[in-house]
């Protein structure tokens, strides 16, 4: 599903440049649940941004479902993001003047799905994350865990090939974190490919594979026995 | 463009901060409002002055004699002289492109103030003019009953008179038959054959208190011989009396042995020149209105642009989220542009509506208090409103352009980082 070869990325900080990613080689098969771990500054978020086409790599190759991702125009990048990717952020990033339902429906709107169908689909996804009753509520009326579940529903609504979660539990307490991970595991059980960036060991162990990043290179890449979050809920 | 969700969003954004939206809108509102009201006021002034000119043939000059101020050909200065009837022919022969030349003699008015007209027990002081039939084209009036002077009257020196509405009111009882009666002008009886009413507001009451009699009969009755007191000369359409004026006066100077450089011997009033001066004043006023209104409007538009920039800045993160979710840059740009145009048009329309209401109010007021000097039915044309609306759409686009571009210039990754 994801193929990365010799990916390099550096940021310019005034006169000196910071080499963040120093040759990443990395493959993800369909249906995998991968945790990307590393301390801050290890380049994990940068990697996720490049995977998410929010940022471009300096060199290297990146194929998403066989499609080369390189030198995309903003328009093309937007289209690919919409079609291929779902995002879950640490800070939820819901649009605060739109209701939960409207937030979930947003990617469908960009896909030019009709209004009625959009509403139905969005409601369906809200139902799957257990928030059907909260459909008309604004994000400010939801708890952190609920917000993240809305965000996950939004990411799933467009039926992306890959779900990218950047510290999805970073702003949540452990109980809520496990609930969110439980949801992510269930989505994965349905066959969806998911990448989770985290620096929490317990969260990482709820995935099926852990990739360790340090100073811009992969130092460890192991498949693990998944811990079901259900046990902690 | 006519997408329910997009409009919903525009409204959501604009109503999320009411106070700011209203303040911003006020700039554009005020600009258009000022523009409309200024243009209407200019138009009102123009209408007012034009009404004061009435239907007077504006391509006209008036000419009369004064004393010479220079000795010439053995004649002393301070000599008084009179135009003669034959001068009309001389002018006709020497100056082309003249439409009407109407000589006139006058009683009352400038010359004397006492009562000069008697009918039975009633009497009054009126301007009495000895005129040719053409005068009705130069000093228009509506003949309300009977007829005006004709050439038979001139040729046969008939002692007939056409009297104004005001004269009739003074000398006759209400409902009394006027035509066929006699009035005594300085002791000479004249048969009243017509009444007139002037519609120009120029002179007001006085203009209705005039008496017109045939020029020839006047000269005979009041011993004017061949003298002519005053001439009204109208040029043909397409040639300007202001240009011909020089020639006419030179012909008269030559004929009456006036020194060619004696500029004060012949008095004149060039209506056309006055009219043109007023006309150019109006176009000046119009331009001032347009310029002032436009500048006020521009400052309003800068305000909109400014606020849109702030809105974009505030929504940087939101825009980042949208782009992460796959909204195309053009769609975001369109959104910002439409918000800007919408705000501009709504506030501009409000300005137009308020301006129209003010104009309507002033018109109603004018109607209730009666005519005001030099001001009549202020209005703006549909064309002005249409072009104002076009200007609004364009300026809305311009106002949104910079903010919209700055919205999509930020890369989604940076927009998302923005807290």
Characterization of the model:
The complex is a heterodimer of chains A (233) and B (419). Chain A is an alpha/beta fold and 233 residues long. Chain A has one domain: 3-Layer(aba) Sandwich (Rossmann fold). Helices cover 33% and strands 28% of the residues of chain A. In chain A, helix 4 crosses helix 5 and helix 5 runs parallel beside helix 6. Chain A is globular and about 50 Å long. The two termini of chain A are 31 Å apart. Chain B is of the alpha+beta class. Chain B has a domain of 193 residues. Chain B is built from 13 helices and 14 strands. In chain B, strands 1, 3, 4, 5, 6, 7, 8, 9, 10, 11, 13 and 14 form a twelve-stranded mixed beta sheet that branches. In chain B, helix 2 packs antiparallel against helix 9 and helix 9 packs parallel to helix 12. The mean pLDDT of chain B is 86. The chains are: A alpha/beta (233), B alpha+beta (419).
Q: In CATH terms, what is the fold-level topology of chain A?
A: Rossmann fold
Contiguous helical run count of chain B: 13
Overall pLDDT of chain A: 88
Class by helix and strand content of chain A? Answer: alpha/beta
Q: Biggest sheet of chain A: strands side by side, in what order?
A: 6-7-8-3-9-10
Q: Roughly what fraction of the amino acids of chain B lie in strands? A: 15-25%
Globally, the shape of chain B reads: elongated
Question: How would a crystallographer describe the biggest sheet of chain B?
Answer: 12 strands, mixed
Helix fraction bin of chain B: 40-55%
Largest interface: A-B, 26 and 23 residues
> For the record, what is the CATH homologous superfamily label of chain A?
P-loop containing nucleotide triphosphate hydrolases
Report the β-strand fraction of chain A as a percent range.
Answer: 25-35%
Fraction of helical residues of chain A: 25-40%
| Arithmetic mean pLDDT of chain B | 86
CATH secondary-structure class of chain A: Alpha Beta
């Amino acid at each position: 599903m994801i193929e990365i070869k010799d990916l390099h990325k550096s940021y310019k900080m005034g006169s000196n440049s910071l080499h963040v990613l120093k040759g990443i080689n990395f493959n993800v098969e369909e249906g995998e649940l991968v945790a990307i771990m590393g301390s801050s500054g290890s380049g994990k978020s940068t990697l996720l941004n490049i995977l998410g086409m929010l940022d471009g790599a300096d060199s290297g190759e990146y194929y998403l479902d066989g499609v080369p991702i390189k030198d995309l125009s903003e328009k093309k990048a937007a289209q690919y993001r919409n079609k291929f990717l779902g995002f879950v952020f640490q800070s939820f990033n819901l649009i605060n003047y739109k209701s939960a339902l409207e937030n979930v429906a947003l990617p469908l709107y960009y896909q030019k799905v009709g209004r009625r169908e959009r509403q139905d689909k969005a409601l369906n996804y809200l139902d799957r994350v257990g928030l059907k009753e909260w459909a008309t509520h604004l994000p400010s009326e939801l708890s952190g865990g609920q917000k993240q579940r809305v965000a996950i529903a939004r990411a799933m609504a467009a039926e992306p090939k890959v779900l990218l979660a950047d510290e999805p539990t970073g702003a949540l307490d452990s109980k809520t974190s496990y609930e969110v991970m439980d949801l992510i595991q269930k989505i994965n059980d349905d066959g969806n490919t998911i990448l989770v960036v985290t620096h929490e060991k317990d969260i990482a162990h709820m995935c099926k594979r852990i990739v360790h990043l340090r100073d811009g290179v992969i130092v460890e890449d192991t498949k693990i026995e998944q811990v079901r979050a259900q046990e902690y809920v | 463009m006519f997408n329910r969700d997009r409009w919903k969003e525009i409204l959501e954004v604009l109503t999320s901060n009411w106070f700011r939206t209203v303040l911003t809108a006020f700039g554009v509102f005020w600009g258009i409002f000022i523009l409309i009201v200024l243009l209407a006021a200019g138009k009102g002034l123009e209408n007012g002055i034009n009404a004061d000119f009435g239907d007077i043939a504006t391509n006209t000059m008036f000419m009369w004699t004064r004393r010479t101020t220079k000795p010439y050909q053995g004649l002393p200065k301070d000599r008084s002289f009179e135009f003669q009837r034959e001068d009309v022919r001389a002018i006709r022969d020497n100056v082309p492109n003249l439409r009407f030349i109407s000589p006139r003699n006058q009683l009352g008015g400038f010359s004397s103030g006492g009562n000069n007209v008697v009918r039975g027990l009633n009497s009054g002081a009126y301007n009495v003019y000895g005129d040719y039939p053409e005068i009705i084209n130069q000093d228009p009036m509506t003949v309300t009953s009977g007829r005006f002077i004709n050439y038979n009257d001139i040729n046969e020196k008939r002692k007939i008179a056409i009297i104004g509405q005001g004269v009739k009111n003074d000398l006759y009882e209400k409902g009394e038959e006027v035509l066929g009666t006699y009035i005594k002008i300085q002791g000479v009886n004249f048969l009243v054959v017509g009444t007139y009413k002037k519609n120009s507001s120029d002179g007001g009451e006085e203009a209705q208190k005039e008496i017109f009699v045939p020029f020839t009969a006047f000269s005979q009755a009041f011993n004017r011989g061949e003298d002519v007191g005053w001439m009204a000369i109208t040029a043909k359409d397409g040639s300007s009396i202001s240009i011909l004026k020089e020639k006419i006066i030179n012909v008269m100077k030559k004929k009456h042995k006036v020194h060619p450089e004696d500029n004060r011997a012949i008095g004149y009033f060039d209506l056309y020149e006055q009219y043109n001066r007023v006309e150019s004043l109006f176009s000046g006023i119009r331009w001032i209105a347009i310029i002032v209104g436009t500048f006020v409007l521009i400052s309003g538009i800068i305000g909109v642009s400014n606020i849109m920039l702030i809105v974009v800045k505030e929504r940087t993160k939101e825009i980042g989220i949208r782009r992460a979710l796959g909204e195309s840059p053009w769609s975001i740009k369109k959104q910002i542009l439409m918000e800007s145009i919408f705000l501009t048009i709504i506030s501009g329309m409000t300005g137009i509506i308020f301006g129209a209401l003010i104009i309507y109010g002033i018109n109603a007021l004018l109607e209730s208090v009666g005519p005001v000097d030099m001001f009549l039915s202020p209005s703006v044309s549909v064309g002005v409103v249409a072009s104002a609306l076009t200007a609004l759409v364009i300026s809305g686009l311009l106002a949104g352009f910079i903010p919209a571009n700055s919205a999509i210039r930020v890369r989604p990754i940076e927009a998302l980082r923005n807290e």
